[in-house]
Amino acid sequence: xxxWSKDLRLTRRGLIAGAAGLLVAHAARADLLRTPRQAAxxxxxxxxxxxxxxxxxxxxxxxxxxxxxxxxxxxxxxSLKGHALDAVTVEIWQADSFGRYNHPxxxxxxxxxxxxxxxxxxxxxxxxxxFRTVRPRYYGAGAGxxxxxxxFYVHGRGSELVTQMYFPGEAMNARDFLYLDxxxxxxxxxxxxxxxxxxxxxxxxxxxxx
Length: 210
Ligand SMILES: [Fe+2]
Fold this sequence. Notes:
The chain folds into 2 domains: 1-30; 31-208, Aromatic compound dioxygenase (Protocatechuate 3,4-Dioxygenase, subunit A, Sandwich). The chain starts with a helix and ends with a strand. A hairpin with a 5-residue loop joins strand 7 (194-196) and strand 8 (202-204). It has helices at residues 2-29, 177-180, 185-190; strands spanning 70-78, 89-93, 118-122, 128-134, 149-156, 159-166, 194-196, 202-204, 207-208. It is α+β, with helices and mostly antiparallel strands. Strands 1, 4, 7, 8 and 9 form a 5-stranded mixed beta sheet that branches. The structure holds fe (ii) ion. Fe (ii) ion (FE2) binds at residues 41, 43, 146, 149, 151.
């Protein structure tokens, strides 16, 4: 009986160790959280702008660089399994430093004529993308106020995603109806960039699309 108990303990220990190993193995294979979808809104360009490169601060033919705080927005496009996805098109569009889109539907106030407003790049072998742009200002008022954000349309490899990127530590996020409409803190975290300090502040934003 004593021997049986000892064997049982050993067996249980082995089972527990085996189960822990399975849990670790399972965790390593767990899918990433798919980046939540968000509304495209009314300001996606109706026609593709002539200048749509990765530097939105410099518009071809403009008198000078865009106004406002220059930032970098960079990250990787990933599969649910965490694999980098190359040859995926990443498009962004956003308000300028006055909170105004370059779009006929935006009848707001002053607009920065030097701001490109839209950019498109393709991910390389490492799934990475990078833009240089300006930090957008908030726009709207009251219940419809929009905290600063950048719109993303990511498509390729049989998948597509429309979403918005938010800025970490931005107090207005807590009043934004689309940010609050996300189903969980994890979902809000998934659309909130991480800031890296530097001469030009960099916002890291990975997109998990498939
Ligand atoms: Fe917007």
